[in-house]
Amino acid sequence: MVKPADLMKAASGTKIAKDIDKKFGRCDILVNNAGLNILERKWSQLTPAGAEQVIDGNLSSAFYCSSAVLPMMRKRKDGVLIHTSSMAGRNPSTLSGRPIRRPSTAWWR
Question: How many CA atoms within 13 Å lie on the side-chain side of 2?
């Protein structure tokens, strides 16, 4: 089942989970693959509103979707949650908001 939704809102995940339960009566696997980034992501540019948007898009959305399907999984005592993340966490670059440094210089310095 594929449905468009704003997963940064708890009600959206709940609505989709109810639709799944109604149509299939179960949810075997949830893949949390939604996420976002913002242009103003350098610490010198990041605002509280921007940080909240990134957190809502990358963390809260996964929490809302997981919370929405867990009752179905618990009822059957079965189910799998798969959470993915971007390579930006492992490979910092200007695309992830971190300035590129010479390879000999660690990014955390």
Answer: 0
DSSP character string of the chain: ------TTSHHHHHHHHHHHHHHHS---EEEE------S--STTT--HHHHHHHHIIIIIHHHHHHHHHHHHHHHHT--EEEE---GGGTS--GGGT-----TTS-TT-
What is the per-residue pLDDT for 10?
A: 96
CB-neighbour burial class of residue 60 (10 A; exposed 0-12, middle 13-18, buried 19+): middle
Ranking 3-17, 33-47, 72-86, 95-109 by mean pLDDT, the lowest is 95-109
Burial class of residue 94 (count of CB atoms within 10 Å of its CB; 0-12, 13-18, 19+): exposed
Amino acid at position 38, single letter: I
One-letter identity of residue 94: T
- Asked whether the whole model's pTM tops 0.85, one would answer no
Amino acid at 84: T
